[in-house]
Automatic annotation (TrEMBL):
Catalytic activity: 6-phospho-D-gluconate + NAD(+) = D-ribulose 5-phosphate + CO2 + NADH
Pfam families: 6PGD, NAD_binding_2
GO biological process, one term: D-gluconate metabolic process
Domain 6-phosphogluconate dehydrogenase C-terminal, chain residue ranges per copy: 165-299
Family membership noted in the UniProt record: Belongs to the 6-phosphogluconate dehydrogenase family.
Protein name: 6-phosphogluconate dehydrogenase, NAD(+)-dependent, decarboxylating
GO terms for MF: NAD+ binding; NADP binding; phosphogluconate dehydrogenase (decarboxylating) activity
Top EC group: oxidoreductase
Assembly behavior: Homotetramer.
This protein's encoding gene: gndA
Length: 299
């Protein structure tokens, strides 16, 4: 198959590499010419613009977008739309909001597949997990490409109609937040608790046969190995948060209780409050009010 890939950053370059390694052809475009050169060095045909990329693809064009979610997807689709027809298919492999994907699927003349992609840049060797929504014929048609980008045939599936792929990925990310929080709390107690413990050793031991072994726990092991048991100078500021916010918003709309994911999202927001969180500072002062407990003051 010949695949157009637009967006050649951390994730898009992996899509290119894996598709090429599986003996397909790639035409590659990015706003950043250095990214295009890197894809060309890997064996892709470089394109100078979206129009150029489309012109280099055969009939029944298949195009994978791996640009940042939001405006970049809309800008790309605005350029692609007049160049494509109903026999063509576009995959959005980024973290788009599922409702935007439903709208885009209705607007675009070509078939639109919303594809949640999990595995991150670290998944380059193993392949990704792909959660795909949209027209079934387009999913079936692109199956050889999905086989190549995913861990294999078991690493992707058709989740349902338009939006279902990005919906499942959104919930996946909510679970990711809660798991990160659970590991974080466990290691926090171990680190602050009554024994002098080696966190890397604990993570490694848990990763070998324990009920709670997982890839995230392997990443904990790697973090303790590289940063030390006390995480060295790693700050407690956690960025991101968009996909977790969408998950919580959706749970409220569906009246489904997801307290762990909500708490994990809140912890992330709290980590960014400059100068300490107001409610904690007030609690500190109130304990003086009712109990004459010492007020801890800033240095
Ligand atoms: N990095 C990660 O762990 C994961 C990222 N994703 C999603 O994949 C998508 C891409 O993420 P990354 O590769 O990490 O981002 P990145 O920032 O590394 O790469 C984005 C690339 O898109 C290019 N680009 C931006 N606007 C463009 C446009 N209008 N036309 C052509 N090229 C354009 C940029 O020049 C850049 O090379 C995002 O939606 C992200 O949320 C999904 C799963 C994991
Ligand atoms: O999708 C991912 C992992 O599964 C990406 O790492 C994504 O960038 C996470 O974003 P955020 O932390 O803002 O939700």
């Amino acid at each position: 198959m010949e695949l157009g890939v637009i967006g050649l950053g951390r994730m898009g370059q992996i899509v290119v590499d894996r598709v090429l390694a599986d003996d397909h052809d790639v035409v590659a475009f990015d706003l950043d010419s250095e990214a295009v050169e890197a894809a060309a060095s890997a064996g892709a045909t470089p394109a100078e613009s979206i129009e150029d990329l489309v012109s280099k693809l055969p009939e029944r064009k298949r195009i994978w977008l791996m640009v940042p979610a939001g405006d970049a997807v809309d800008a790309t689709l605005a350029e692609l739309d007049p160049l494509l027809d109903a026999e063509d298919a576009v995959v959005d492999g980024g973290n788009s909001h599922f409702e935007r994907s439903i709208d885009r699927g209705e607007t675009l003349e070509a078939a639109y597949l919303d594809c949640g992609t999990s595995g991150g840049p670290a998944g380059a060797e193993l392949g990704f997990s792909l959660m795909i929504g949209g027209p079934e014929w387009a999913y079936e048609d692109l199956a050889p490409v999905f086989d190549a980008v995913a861990t294999g045939p078991a690493g992707h599936d058709h989740m349902g109609p338009q939006g279902a792929g990005h919906y499942v990925k959104m919930v996946h990310n909510g679970v990711e937040y809660a798991l990160m929080q659970a590991y974080g709390e466990g290691f926090e107690l171990l680190s602050e608790g009554r024994y002098d413990l080696d966190m890397e050793s604990i993570a490694r031991t848990w990763n070998n046969g324990a009920v709670i072994r997982s890839w995230l726990l392997e990443l904990c092991e790697e973090a303790f190995r590289e940063e030390g048991s006390d995480l060295g100078d790693v700050d407690d500021h956690v960025a991101g948060g968009s996909t977790g916010t969408w998950t919580v918003e959706e749970a409220l709309e569906q009246e489904v209780s997801i307290p762990l994911i909500y708490e994990a999202l809140g912890e992330r927001f709290d980590s960014r409050v400059e100068g300490g969180k107001f409610s904690r500072r007030l609690a500190n002062r109130l304990r003086y009010g009712f109990g004459r407990h010492e007020v801890k003051r800033r240095e």
